[in-house]
Amino acid sequence: MFELNPTFSFTLLGTYVIYVWTRPSRSEWLAVLIVAVGLRSVCLRLTGGFGAYYGVWWISWGAFLGIASMIVLAAQVVRLRGPERKSCRDTFNAGAVFPLSSLLIGYTVPLTIWLRPKTYDAFLLAFDGSLGFQPSFVLGRLLPWGSNAWGLTTVVYYALPLAGIITYAAHRTKRHQPVAILPLLLSLIVIGFAQYGAYPAVGPRYAYAAVYPQGQPDLAGVALQPMTVPASPRNCMPSLHLAGALVLWWNSRIWTRWARSLAGLFLLATAFSTLALGEHYLADLVVAFPFTLAFQAAWTTAIPVSQSARRRAFCAGVILTIGWLVLLRYGLRPFFASPVVPWVALLFTLAWCSKLESNLADLVQLRTAR
C-alpha cells in the first residue's frame, strides 16, 4: 500500500503554518481548503490509502494543506503586482525551502549505508551502560508496542520539522530578529548530516534488533569495535531531533508563557521519544547540546562576534562536540572506572551549555531592549 511519509507531511504542514502566519484573507483560506480537499480526494482514489501508522488520518492532512498553500501562493504571485506580489513570493520561497530540504535529505540519507557499512553503536551502547543502566532499553520497555502511548511518542518523533518551522515562522514576522533562524536550521541540518558520516550509528532499535527493548546486550560480551548493520540509515549521532527541539526551546523566549511552556514540553517529549523508540542512545542526546549551542551562537546576529559571550558559546560548543566524539570512539575506558565519571561528564556538559546559552540570551535581551 502507498504510504505518505509522516515526517514529510509534518514538513508540509509547516509550509501551511508559514502561510497562515501571514494572515491571509477569508477567501484565501477557503481557496486553500478547497484545493487541499480536492488533492486529498484524488490521491485517496488513486492510492486507496495513505498508510497504516498511528494518526495517519490527520497527519496526512498536513501534506495536502501545505501543497494547497503553495498552489494558492503561486497563483497570487502570477496575479498580483507590486509589494503584494513580492510578499507572496517571499512567503512562497519560505514555504518551499523546508520541503525541498526534506526531499534532498530523504534521497541522501541512504547513501550513509553505502559510505559507512560499519557503525559505532557498540561504543555508544558501552557509554550508556557505564551510567549503570541502558536508558533507551529501560524507556523502551515502558511503551508496549502497538499501544496509543507508543503511537503518540512516534508522532512526537515525526513532528520535529513542524516545530522547527513554527520557530522560523514566529521569528520571520519580527522586524528585528536577534537570531537568524533559517540559516541556523539549514546549517544545523547540513552539517549534522555530514557528521553522520564521521560518526556512523543507527540506534539500539536497529543495531540490537534481536533483543530490543525487552532484553539488552551483555556489555561483557560486546566487542568495542565497529559493527555491520545493514539497511539502516546512519543518522544517530548527534541527535538532530533533540537539536531541533533545543532550537525551539532556546528561541521561544519571545513567545507568551503558555507557548514557551509548550516548547519546553516538546523538548522533554522529544528526549523521551528518541530514547523510548530506540532511535538514539543517551550519548547522542548529550552531544546534541554542545552541537546545537555552536549554531545558536554562530547565528545570534544581535550580538557582535567581538562579544566574548558569543565567542565563548561558539568555541565551547565546537570543542565539547569534538571532544565527546573523540572520547566516544577512542577514550571510553575512563568512563568504566565508576558510574560517577560518565555522570559528571554528562551533567557538566548539559549544565555548561545551558549556562552559556542563557548568558547569550540575556545579552540579546539587553541589546534588544535598548
Description:
The chain is an all-alpha fold and about 375 residues long. It contains 16 helices and two strands. Strands 1-2 form a two-stranded antiparallel ribbon. Helix 2 crosses helix 3. The mean pLDDT is about 90.
Q: How many H/I helices? A: 16
Main sheet properties: 2 strands, antiparallel
Average pLDDT for all residues: 89
Net shape: globular
Instruction: Report the oligomer.
Output: single chain
Give unreliable regions as ranges.
none
Distance between the termini: 58 Å
Content of β-strand:
under 5%
Strands of the largest sheet, in order across it? 1-2
Q: How is this structure best summarized?
A:
The protein is an all-alpha fold and 370 residues long. It contains 16 helices and 2 strands.
Notable traits:
370 residues, mainly alpha, 2 domains, two-stranded antiparallel sheet, 1% strand
Which secondary structure elements does this structure contain, and how are they paired or packed?
Blueprint: H1 6-21, H2 26-47, H3 56-79, H4 83-108, H5 111-115, E1 118-119, H6 121-130, H7 135-140, H8 148-158, H9 160-172, H10 181-198, H11 204-207, E2 227-228, H12 240-250, H13 257-276, H14 282-298, H15 308-330, H16 340-368
Antiparallel strand pairs: 1-2
Helix pairs in contact: 1-3, 1-4, 1-9, 2-3, 3-4, 8-13, 9-12, 10-12, 12-13, 12-14, 14-15, 14-16, 15-16
